[in-house]
Each structure stands twice: as C-alpha cells, then as structure tokens.
C-alpha cells in the first residue's frame, strides 16, 4: 500500500508539472528575423509560434495591417503583417493573392505563398502574432508557378492591382490587405 501511495503521488506531481506547460513564457517568446531573403534585415517584435491545437471558434476578427510593397528593383513584393490589436492574432499560414478586375477583387490563381520565417523552413500550420508584432515572410516573387523563395518554373504576373488575404487559423475571419499595383 505504501509503494502504491508513493507512486500515485509521483504521478500527481508529473501531471501537475505537465499541466503548467500550456503556453509560452516571455522567455520562450522568440524574436524572429524580419526578412532573411531581401537586402535589408532587422529584428521585429516578438512572434509566438503556437503548435497546432484543436480549432476553437474565435471572437471578433483580429486587427491586422497587411501590406504588399513592390520592391524598387525587380518584381518581388515585400509582405508585412502587423498585429494592431490588443490581443494575440492566430493566423493560418496560407496567403491568398487576389487581383482586381472590373472593380472587384477575386482569387487570381492558387497561391503557394505562405507565412514562413525564411526560405529554409516550411510554414507551420498556424502562427500567433503577439499584440504589436510584425511578421515579414520572404517576398512574393511576382510570379505564378513558383511564387516564393525561388523561381525555377514560373511566369511573371500581368500588370494590375493586387492584395494579400489571410484567414484566422480557425477559418472564421478573412483579413484583406491594402491593395498595391504592379507595373510591367
């Protein structure tokens, strides 16, 4: 009986310790390089990368700024997503690219652009941006086919007005970026 009681208390201590591992501490919050493939590099605010978990419907849509900025040289378009809200924003990592035709935006082609931190790693299923955090993934190359990081089988997109669109990780909210223009 005494051995069983000691084993039960040991298991209780282990379960309590495991339960405390739920969310990252400020020390675990990583600073992510803003852009590792472009000419400028700077560190951004903390970005918390959350492991996949059960999808729970979210509350109101997060307040995000999604900006596409065509680079002065070449056809690449820098992507910047900033959480301007008071709480964390959980985002799916697939970035849709829409083009404006006849005054309406629509999906141009299936997009292979993702919210990844660099070209060496695949994108996780979801990312969580802390309030004030900015994520700058590798740029969109302004092409169809291969769209981000390399252009082995690709073709340039036509001139026009585009925007980036992301959804929350649970799919409940769609957030549209500021339109930008590509000229050829």
The SSE order reads HEEEEEEEEEEEEEEE
Report the principal-axis shape.
globular
Average pLDDT level: 76
Measure the end-to-end span: 81 Å
Classify the helix fraction into a percent range.
Answer: under 10%
Description:
With 184 residues, the chain is mostly beta strands. The chain contains 1 helix and 15 strands. The protein has one helix at 2-19, and strands at 30-33, 43-48, 64-70, 77-83, 89-92, 94-101, 104-107, 113-114, 126-129, 134-135, 143-145, 154-156, 160-167, 174-176, 180-182. The strands form 4 sheets. Strands 6, 7, 8, 13, 14 and 15 form a 6-stranded antiparallel beta sheet that branches. A 4-stranded antiparallel beta sheet has the order 1-2-9-5, with no helix packed on it. A hairpin with a 6-residue loop joins strand 13 and strand 14 (174-176). The chain is globular.
């Amino acid at each position: 009986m005494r051995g069983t009681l000691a084993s039960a208390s040991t298991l209780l201590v282990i379960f309590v310790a495991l339960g405390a591992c739920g969310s990252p501490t400020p020390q675990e919050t990583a600073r992510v390089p803003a852009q590792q493939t472009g000419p400028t590099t700077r560190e951004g605010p903390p970005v918390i990368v959350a492991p996949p978990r059960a999808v729970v419907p979210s509350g109101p849509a997060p307040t995000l700024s999604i900006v596409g900025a065509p680079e002065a040289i070449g056809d690449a378009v820098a992507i910047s997503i900033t959480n301007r809200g008071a709480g964390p924003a959980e985002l799916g990592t697939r970035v849709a690219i829409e083009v404006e035709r006849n005054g309406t935006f629509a999906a141009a082609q299936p997009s292979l652009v993702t919210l990844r931190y660099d070209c060496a790693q695949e994108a996780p299923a979801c990312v969580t941006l802390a309030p004030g955090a900015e994520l700058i993934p590798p740029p969109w190359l302004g092409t169809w086919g291969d769209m981000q990081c390399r252009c082995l089988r690709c073709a340039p997109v036509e001139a026009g007005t585009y925007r980036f669109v992301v959804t929350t990780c649970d799919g409940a909210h769609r957030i549209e970026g500021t339109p930008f223009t590509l000229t050829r």
